[in-house]
Design brief:
- With 353 residues, this protein is α/β, with parallel strands linked by helices.
- It has 2 domains: 2-260 and 332-345, Alpha-Beta Complex (Spore Coat Polysaccharide Biosynthesis Protein SpsA, Chain A); 263-331.
- The protein has 11 helices and 10 strands.
- It has helices at residues 6-11, 20-26, 48-65, 82-92, 107-117, 137-144, 162-180, 212-218, 242-261, 266-292, 301-333; strands spanning 2-3, 17-18, 38-44, 69-75, 96-101, 122-125, 150-154, 192-195, 223-227, 341-345.
- The chain has an 8-stranded mixed sheet with strand order 9-7-8-6-3-4-5-10, with helices on both faces. A two-stranded antiparallel ribbon has the order 1-2.
- Helix 4 links the parallel strand 4 (69-75) and strand 5.
- Helix 3 (48-65) packs parallel to helix 4 and helix 10 (266-292) packs antiparallel against helix 11 (301-333).
- The radius of gyration is 24 Å and the shape is elongated.
- The protein starts with a strand and ends in an 8-residue tail after the last strand.
Length: 353
C-alpha cells in the first residue's frame, strides 16, 4: 500500500490509502501550480462522438471569460472509445484532467469524484452530451458575482420528450421544491455554479447530486436560478429513463428524513411505535367485541393478519431508514469515498488559462 502525498489527497478527498496499482498509474503529485479560479467537471458515460465538439465549445467559452480554469472529465466506466478521446484531449490541452473510474458507479458518484478533484474557487458541473451549452457558464458566473452562492440552470425550453422526460421531471421538481424548501424549477439540470466552500463537506449517495442546492441551503448558501439553453441530443444515447424518477423519490424521502430527524430519529421511530400500539389496541378491542358476540377469539384470522402485515411494513420502512444511516456511518467514519479511481491523467502537468 502507498500513501498519497498531501496534494493528491486534495484530489481524492477522504481516500488517503489506495492500492499500489492505483498509485503507480496516478503518478506523483498534482503539479503544485496555483489553483485555477474555475473548475468545470463533467461525468462521461459512452459519449465518444460528443466529446471533441463539446471540448471545442468549452475551450471557446472559457477563453472568453478571461479567468484561469481547469476541465475535469470523469469517465464513469465507459465501454466505447470515450476514455481514448479523453486521453487525447488531456494530451493536447494542459487544463484537462481525466479521472477514470473502475466501473460504472452512476452519475452521483462521478460528480462526487469531480468535486473531490476540483481545485477552483467556483465549481461548475455539466453534462457531456452537448445538451448543456458552455456559453451559459459566463451567465452563471455573472449571477454568482451578484452575491449568490449557488446558481442553478433552468432548462426553460427543454428539448426532450414530453411524456417520458418533461412531465415526470416537472412533477419531481414540484415535489422536491416543496419538501426540500428550495424553490427551483429544474433540479435535474446538471449545469450549475457553486462557490467552493459550500461543497467541501457535501457527501453524495444514490441519486442525490440533484439535491446539492438543498444541502447548500442548509449551511446558509444563497440559492437562485437562471434560464439556460438546452439542446436536443443529436449523438449518443440517453442514459435517463422513468426508473430514475422513482429512485429520486426514494432519495427525496431520505433527504427529508435526514433534514428533519437526523439528530432526533426517535421522533420518527416513536411515531411508528405509537401508531403500532394504536392499531394493536384497536385490533385487540375489535377482537374482544367479536368474542363477546360469540365469535371464536382463537380462530379469528383478521387480528393476526392485520398485526403481522402492519408489523412487516413498519419493519421494512424502519430497516430502510436505519440502512441509510448505517451507510453514511460506514463511509464517513472510515473516510471512504463512494467510488474508486482506476487512473488519473494530466495531474502532474502545468495548466494554463
Amino acid at each position: 500500500m502507498k500513501i498519497y502525498d498531501e496534494e493528491e489527497t486534495v484530489i481524492s478527498r477522504q481516500t488517503s490509502v489506495v492500492e499500489a496499482e492505483e498509485a503507480t498509474v496516478a503518478g506523483a503529485g498534482d503539479g503544485g501550480d496555483e489553483a485555477p479560479e474555475i473548475s468545470v467537471f463533467l461525468p462521461v458515460l459512452n459519449e465518444e462522438p460528443n466529446l471533441r465538439p463539446l471540448h471545442l465549445k468549452l475551450d471557446e467559452s472559457l477563453a472568453a471569460l478571461g479567468r484561469t480554469a481547469e476541465i475535469i472529465y470523469v469517465d464513469d466506466g465507459s465501454t466505447d472509445g470515450s476514455l481514448e478521446v479523453l486521453r487525447e484531449l488531456a494530451a493536447r490541452d494542459p487544463r484537462v484532467r481525466v479521472i477514470a473510474l473502475r466501473r460504472n458507479y452512476g452519475q452521483t458518484a462521478a460528480m462526487a469524484a469531480g468535486i473531490d478533484a476540483a481545485r477552483g474557487q467556483v465549481l461548475i458541473p455539466m453534462d457531456a452530451d452537448l445538451q448543456n451549452d458552455p456559453v451559459d457558464i459566463s451567465r452563471l458566473l455573472d449571477k454568482l458575482d451578484e452575491g449568490f452562492d449557488v446558481v442553478s440552470g433552468w432548462r426553460k425550453e427543454r428539448q426532450d420528450k414530453m411524456v417520458t422526460r418533461k412531465i415526470p421531471s416537472a412533477m419531481a421538481n414540484w415535489i422536491i421544491s416543496g419538501i426540500g424548501g428550495v424553490k427551483l424549477h429544474d433540479y435535474g439540470c446538471s449545469l450549475k455554479a457553486y462557490r467552493r466552500e459550500f461543497l467541501k463537506d457535501v457527501r453524495l449517495y444514490g441519486e442525490m447530486h440533484r439535491f446539492i442546492p438543498i444541502y447548500a441551503s442548509w449551511v446558509g448558501a444563497r440559492v437562485t436560478e437562471i434560464p439556460v439553453q438546452h439542446h436536443a441530443r443529436t449523438m449518443g444515447q440517453s442514459k435517463y429513463g422513468l426508473s430514475r424518477t422513482f429512485k429520486v423519490m426514494l432519495d427525496l424521502m431520505t433527504i427529508k428524513f435526514m433534514a428533519s430527524y437526523h439528530t432526533k430519529p426517535i421522533y420518527v421511530f416513536g411515531m411508528f411505535g405509537f401508531s403500532s400500539f394504536l392499531i394493536s389496541a384497536i385490533a385487540f378491542a375489535w377482537a374482544v367485541l367479536r368474542k363477546l358476540g360469540g365469535e371464536s377469539f382463537i380462530r379469528n384470522p383478521l387480528l393476526v393478519i392485520a398485526i403481522v402485515m402492519f408489523a412487516v411494513g413498519v419493519q421494512f420502512i424502519l430497516m430502510g431508514l436505519l440502512a441509510e444511516m448505517l451507510v453514511r456511518t460506514y463511509h464517513e467514519s472510515q473516510a471512504k469515498t463512494v467510488y474508486t479511481v482506476r487512473e488519473k491523467i494530466g495531474f502532474n502537468k502545468s495548466r494554463k488559462s
